[in-house]
Structures are given as structure tokens and as C-alpha cells.
């Protein structure tokens, strides 16, 4: 029985360590976007550029830092995190990436995302959720 | 602002055309359909007149069947039905909602059709960009997914290099007062560190399971030991009770002592004492506390330890040498094991040997 307690202790310690590692590790898109060239900064808002096409930046970012929601507009890609909004737009053959906290990002992009990620009642207001609801 | 103007124009076109929004869009909300048409109109204008749109066949057992269609040219008509659209890409979908009592399940499917384009987006591209499956259109939020899938078409076509990109223009003014951002309250690290989190939770679960198993095993071991101790106590009590019963019979204990004394005094082995016959009489009982053949009775004391004149002489075997069974050493003075009573009654652990 002592061996059982020992195994349980070791496994439990590993589990707690893994959870602590997950919680304490830096999260959010800011750390990932540092790999791109920063062209401007204003408080928590930053703008980056890269030679990669928007679709690749979007795919790489959401794979590395999964967002809560995404929206694809004809003009670019939007990614919604808990405290940030990221917009990936075309810039020549490359991309321009906007990183803002949620309030600044919402203020910057509300004509595009207002109906989805905010209470702005512009375009697509009822597409935020719900729907016909007639399905099983 | 230009987008708002286009949306207003699309709404006006729908109203002037006389098509009732509800009739034209049984799947999308009428306002959303109009908004989507305006979005596509803006993209089409910036991308050289490529047509974008959607067409969805809806079968609703609880409502109205119909076709939901629209394009950059307005709500109600898919690009494939517009002769002027020589280059187009559109989402084609089918949704079936069955009744609650039906044996069948709701179903849905979608694909992407195009015309006049060399590298159009595929259904896989749309699913990947939007994060959906075709079957998801049957769900309650299917209209949201359809909207997002159609809205993604101009971006995906531009990413393929087929048409120029539409640029995003940040808002020139602050959002109207009273509007606030909404969104997920789930921390980013839950999604980002999902692998570590799941691994840790699994390990903790395994650890808790092992602890529970350990408690169970310990309890089982304790129960087993308790049961064994109880059985042992029962044996002891039973043996004590037998000894007590036997001690209460008059003359027996004294006779046994007399036999032992007589034998040791004369140095005679296997002398049959007076009293009960060997097999049926009350043989000297040995309790559980007596161990070994040497404790078989008063006469079984080893010779060297027997003081007095009963000590046999050299070469003369003692009255009951332990560990040296003699063929004639039978009867009431033979060696007995603690668990094998010789009174003819089977013991608890050796029921078949009591009659031998």
C-alpha cells in the first residue's frame, strides 16, 4: 500500500506542476506578435508589419494562440481574445497587424466588429448569436 | 460610412423590388441578409466586379420551406442566377430541420461554387477560415455561420491572388456612447495552454483514482486481518470452552494426573491407566497455547527436564520423548496438535482428521 501512496503522490505532483505551468506561463497574443517588426506603439496598442500574407499570419497566430472568436471580413481577419483584439490586414504583399486591448480595439474597428463583439447596433447586429432556433 | 450607404442602398433595393424580406430569406434574418448584401457589394466594387453571394435550400418541418439567397446585387438572387455575373463565387447550402417526432436527424451541408475564376476558394478554405463544418448550419447559430462564411469569400479570393485586397479602414471617430465591447470571459491561457492543462488535470485525476484505490486496498487488508483475528479468537474461545467442560467432569483430571504420576514413577511407557478407553475416553486436551508434541500432557515432559526419581536411566527411553514417536505410543498419551482435537470432534480447520 505504501507503494500505491508513493505512485499517487508522484503522479499528483506531476499533474499539479503541469497545471501550474499552464497557469503561470505567459499567455495572450502580445508575446507571439513580438516576432514581427513593430512599427508603432501607443500604450498597449501596437502595430506590426511582416512580409507574410494575411492568411498565413492569421493561421499562425490562431494556431499558436487560439482566440475566443474570429471574424473574416473582406478587408482582413479579426481575432478576439479576452483582453485583446487583433486585426490582420493586407499591406502590399505582406501584412499589417494591429494589437489593441479590447476597448481600444473595439473603438478602432467597431464598424466591422461592432455587431459581433460589442453592443454597437450597426451592421449585422443580430448575427451575434441566436438565430432561427428551429432545429432539433 | 461608405458601407452604411451601400447597406442603405441594398435595403432600398429590396424594398423597391417589393420582395418581402421574410419571404426572401427564410434562414437569415432579413436585416442580416441586407447587411451581408451590402458588405458583398462593397467588396465586389473594390475587386473588379466579382460577384459574391449565397443560396440555401431550407426544409423546415416546423416552419416554412424555402430558398434563402442573396448577392452583392441584393437579397433574393444568387450570383448564379444573375446573367451579368460572369465571375462569381457563392456558398451553396442545404439545411433540413425535421420535426421533433421524426426518427430522422437534422442535417446540413454546404459547398462553394464558382464561375470564371482560376483559383477560387474551396469549401475547405471557408471551413478553415470560419472554423465550422458544413453540418454546423443545422444548429441554432447556423445563420451566424452562414453570414461569416459568405463574408469571408472576398478575403479568401484576395488571399488567393485572384483579385485585389480590400483594405480595412480604422474608425475615424469613437463608437457611439453606450456601446461596449463584449466577448469571451474565458482566460486566454485556458485555450493557449490547453495541452498542459488537460495533461495536468488527467494526472491529478489519475492520482486521485490511485489514492481511492489505495484506501480501498487498505480497507480490504484491514478487514481481512480483522476477520482472521476473529477466527483465531473464536478458536481460542472454543478451545477454552472445551477445556472448561472437560475440567468440570469429576475424576477425570485427577485420574490423568494419577496416570502421569504412576508412569513417571515407575519409568514405564505406554502404561494404560485405569479409566476410560484410549479412543473414547477424554484424552488429555491440548489448548491452542500448547505447542509441539512436548506439551501433549503432563506425561509428555521431556526426560532430561524431569527431576526426581522418575528420570529414566541411561539408555532407557523416557516416558514420552518428544519428537521421537514410538509405535506403541498411542492412546490418551499420544501427541496431539493444537488444532486437531483428539476427542473425536472435528476442529475448525481440519474437519476430516478428527475421526482418525
Polypeptide structure, described:
The complex is a heterodimer of chains A (136) and B (356). Chain A has 136 residues and is of the alpha+beta class. Chain A has helices spanning 2-24, 29-33, 54-64, 102-117; strands at residues 37-42, 45-50, 69-73, 76-80, 84-91, 94-101. With 356 residues, chain B is α+β, with helices and mostly antiparallel strands. Chain B has a five-stranded mixed beta sheet with strand order 3-2-1-4-5. In chain B, a hairpin with a 5-residue loop joins β1 (51-60) and β2. The longest helix of chain B is centred in the middle third of the chain and has 54 residues, at 194-247. Chain B is elongated and about 120 Å long. At the A-B interface, α1, α3, β3, β4 and β5 of A face α1, α3, α4, α5 and α6 of B.
Strand-helix topology:
The complex is a heterodimer of chains A (136) and B (356).
Chain A: H1 2-24, H2 29-33, E1 37-42, E2 45-50, H3 54-64, E3 69-73, E4 76-80, E5 84-91, E6 94-101, H4 102-117
Antiparallel strand pairs in A: 1-2, 2-6, 3-4, 4-5, 5-6
Chain B: H1 2-16, H2 21-24, H3 30-46, E1 51-60, E2 66-71, E3 74-75, E4 88-97, E5 107-115, H4 123-130, H5 142-151, H6 153-159, H7 188-192, H8 194-247, H9 252-266
Helix pairs in contact in B: 1-3, 4-5
Amino acid at each position: 500500500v505504501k507503494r500505491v501512496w508513493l505512485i499517487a503522490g508522484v503522479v499528483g505532483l506531476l499533474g499539479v506542476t503541469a497545471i501550474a505551468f499552464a497557469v503561470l506561463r505567459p499567455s495572450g497574443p502580445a508575446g507571439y506578435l513580438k516576432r514581427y517588426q513593430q512599427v508603432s506603439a501607443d500604450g498597449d496598442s501596437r502595430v506590426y508589419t511582416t512580409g507574410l500574407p494575411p492568411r498565413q499570419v492569421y493561421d499562425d497566430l490562431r494556431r499558436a494562440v487560439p482566440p475566443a472568436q474570429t471574424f473574416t471580413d473582406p478587408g482582413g481577419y479579426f481575432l478576439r481574445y479576452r483582453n485583446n483584439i487583433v486585426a490582420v490586414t493586407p499591406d502590399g504583399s505582406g501584412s499589417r497587424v494591429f494589437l489593441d486591448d479590447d476597448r481600444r480595439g473595439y473603438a478602432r474597428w467597431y464598424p466591422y466588429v461592432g455587431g459581433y463583439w460589442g453592443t454597437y447596433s450597426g451592421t449585422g447586429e443580430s448575427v451575434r448569436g441566436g438565430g432561427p432556433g428551429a432545429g432539433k | 460610412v461608405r458601407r452604411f450607404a451601400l447597406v442603405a442602398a441594398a435595403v432600398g433595393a429590396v424594398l423597391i423590388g417589393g420582395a418581402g424580406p421574410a419571404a426572401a430569406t427564410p434562414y437569415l434574418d432579413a436585416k442580416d441578409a441586407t447587411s451581408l448584401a451590402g458588405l458583398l457589394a462593397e467588396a465586389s466594387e473594390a475587386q473588379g466586379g466579382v460577384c459574391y453571394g449565397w443560396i440555401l435550400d431550407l426544409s423546415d418541418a416546423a416552419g416554412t420551406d424555402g430558398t434563402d439567397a442573396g448577392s452583392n446585387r441584393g437579397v433574393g438572387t444568387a450570383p448564379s442566377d444573375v446573367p451579368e455575373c460572369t465571375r462569381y463565387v457563392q456558398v451553396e447550402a442545404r439545411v433540413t430541420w425535421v420535426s421533433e417526432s421524426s426518427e430522422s436527424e437534422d442535417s446540413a451541408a454546404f459547398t462553394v461554387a464558382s464561375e470564371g475564376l482560376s483559383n477560387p476558394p474551396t469549401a475547405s478554405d471557408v471551413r478553415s477560415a470560419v472554423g465550422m463544418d458544413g453540418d454546423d448550419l443545422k444548429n441554432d447559430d447556423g445563420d451566424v455561420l452562414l453570414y461569416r462564411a459568405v463574408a469571408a469569400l472576398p478575403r479568401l479570393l484576395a488571399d488567393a491572388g485572384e483579385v485585389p485586397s480590400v483594405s480595412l479602414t480604422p474608425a475615424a471617430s469613437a463608437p457611439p456612447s453606450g456601446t461596449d465591447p463584449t466577448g469571451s470571459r474565458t482566460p486566454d491561457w485556458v485555450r493557449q495552454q490547453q495541452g498542459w492543462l488537460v495533461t495536468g488535470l488527467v494526472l491529478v485525476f489519475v492520482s486521485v483514482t490511485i489514492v481511492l484505490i489505495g484506501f480501498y486496498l487498505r480497507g480490504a487488508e484491514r478487514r481481512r486481518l480483522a476477520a482472521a483475528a476473529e477466527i483465531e479468537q473464536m478458536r481460542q474461545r472454543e478451545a477454552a470452552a472445551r477445556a472448561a467442560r472437560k475440567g468440570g467432569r469429576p475424576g477425570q483430571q485427577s485420574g490423568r494426573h494419577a496416570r502421569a504420576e504412576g508412569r513417571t514413577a515407575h519409568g514405564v511407557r505406554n502404561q494404560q491407566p485405569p479409566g476410560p478407553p484410549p479412543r473414547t475416553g477424554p484424552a488429555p486436551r491440548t489448548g491452542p497455547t500448547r505447542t509441539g508434541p512436548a506439551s501433549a500432557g503432563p506425561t509428555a515432559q521431556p526426560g532430561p527436564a524431569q527431576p526426581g526419581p522418575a528420570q529414566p536411566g541411561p539408555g532407557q527411553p523416557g516416558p514420552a520423548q518428544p519428537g521421537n514417536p514410538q509405535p506403541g505410543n498411542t492412546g490418551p498419551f499420544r501427541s496431539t496438535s493444537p488444532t486437531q482435537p483428539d476427542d473425536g470432534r472435528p476442529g475448525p480447520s481440519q474437519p476430516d482428521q478428527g475421526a482418525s
